[in-house]
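U., I forgot to send this yesterday:
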Amino acid sequence: MYILGEGVEKNKQKAKDLLIKSAAQKNKSAEKALVAIGLEDNAEKFSKKRMSDVYAIASLLEEFKKITGHYPFYTQNEPVQEGYKKIGTLVTIGTSTAEEQLSKEPNPFHISSTKAYSSHLKRELEQKLERKIELPTDPQEVPIYAPNAYYVYFPAEDDEYLVMAFLYNPNAFTYELFNAHANVYVIASSPVISEYRFWNSAGIKPRIFKYIKQ
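Result:
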């Protein structure tokens, strides 16, 4: 009504406020309408922030390695109980609300991994970097389609990582995973990254951290 000006004066902000309230109550129509408004108003801004945030997270991991000689959650020398095998660690980085919601859902890559969250990674970083760390969070306010979080995957055996974010609009660094609203933006830590099955099957070709220009 407020978007089209049907019987009232057009007021996009008022329409958005009402839709956010409805979406919070699981109104699917409101969620879809918010997607349209959000894409129109913020798609480019959100993409730039997400890509910048991915780079910022990777920069912290690189700083961590300079000090320790390895990336966080590296478990190569840890013993494994007989009959078991090591699995990687997938860190979800988001607001407390987003992390709580996503903890109840399968990870978007459908891989077996140890679950970790921003508090775990933050603790690892702060212990070695010896300063307070604030990890960036996704800019989208309403959890529609996109996971609204960043993901960092640390393989079990190799000292590597992937930092991932989801963009609505594809660019040179995105790979479409499931649908038009699931383009993953990826950067990698090393010139040669191992051929892990989950990202190969998704058609993901990791970008190298040192070649990403800001």
